[in-house]
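Annotated sample (chain length 124).
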Amino acid sequence: MEKQISIVVAASGEIKDIGISEGATVGEVMKEANLVGYQLTRKGGELLTPETNIFSMAMDSEKFYATPEDVSVGGGDSVPRTTLGMLNSRISDFLDKTRNVATDQDNKTWGDRSYGLKKKVFNL
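Output written by the structure step:
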């Protein structure tokens, strides 16, 4: 039994359709696709090692993604999720404080305050 998979190559967008048979590894598939120096990931960023048995895990007609090995995908030197979460939290805090300044000043609503700003800036 053979399965067909597609490998989407980063940057070029080229799609390589490959037939794999039982016992095929990621390393073998990458060699066959002439993608030595690339790493393979699944949708969602799951990085597959060269030793991974791709046949047992792949669905027929599944798409995989090839990126150069020096580019991090979802790990390694990429920004950790905790850092992104902290950044997102700080942005939310800033926006909340900005809204509070605009709504607290002169007990006006945000809409009234923005109109007041337009009036001052544009001399309306």
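Annotation: The longest strand covers residues 2-9.
Annotation: The chain has four helices and five strands.
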